[in-house]
Write the structure tokens for this entry.
Amino acid sequence: METPFPPFEPNGPDDSARGPRLREIPLRLVFPNLITILAICAGLTGIRLAFENRYELAVSMVLVAAFLDGIDGRVARLMKATSKFGAQMDSLADIVNFGVAPALVVYVFALDQARSLGWIAALIYAIAAGLRLARFNVMAERENKASWQSEYFVGVPAPAGAMLVLLPVYLGFLGIATDRSFAFASSIYTVFIAFLLISRLPVWSGKSEGNRLRRDLVLPMMLGVVLYVALLMSYTWEVMVFTVAAYLVSLPFGARKWRRKYGTLTIEEPGIGDDDIGRHI
């Protein structure tokens, strides 16, 4: 005779007895994580290609990794597939693609001729990228976010840092001799980019919803983007050098805009300093 009541389970219900339905995961939840994994593969492949002296392919793979790592979160939000697992995967991918891979590629290409100084510079950049990403994650977890966070980054973001730190490689592709003097100069430049990552410099992000474009400028802007991509495909390394220079030149203008609005040169916001570090160690 069957009992009308389910049997008592002291350790809670056994989910494995409910059939395969609970073990099935929608494909839309998996797709963004596949993009993240592909980004990690591209970054690690870039490291391998650098050690094989195939530098142009190595840099291309690092840039592809940065691109994939930049779109996986947006794809997840568009597909309504965000998850804590995906966020953790994305953080791990950021360390590889924006910290380790660029540092090793620039070290193998140029910094190794500076011996220990070059290696120290590469280490400093990789660690600075990790610290920058950790600070970003801490700020993202805050329940009450400041209004300026939608408009400014605190320091240069890690994806931009990966693009900037590869400048010595771009210059080498253009024919500049990668001798010992070039290696020392590149080491100093690498440390400078590492400082920009962990600094409190206000960097305009362009993500504010209040930023709008005049109607008559929409088509010229679209044409400018097409022209930039066409030039990038035809004169890749020249355009990358120009992009790095333009980005570095734009930093003081973002800081100037911040100073006019908030009256300080750097972002001094409670909750992103020592207190946050202490709470999250």
Q: What stands out?
A: The radius of gyration is 23 Å. Residues 270-281 have pLDDT under 50 and may be disordered. The beta strands are 152-154, 202-204.
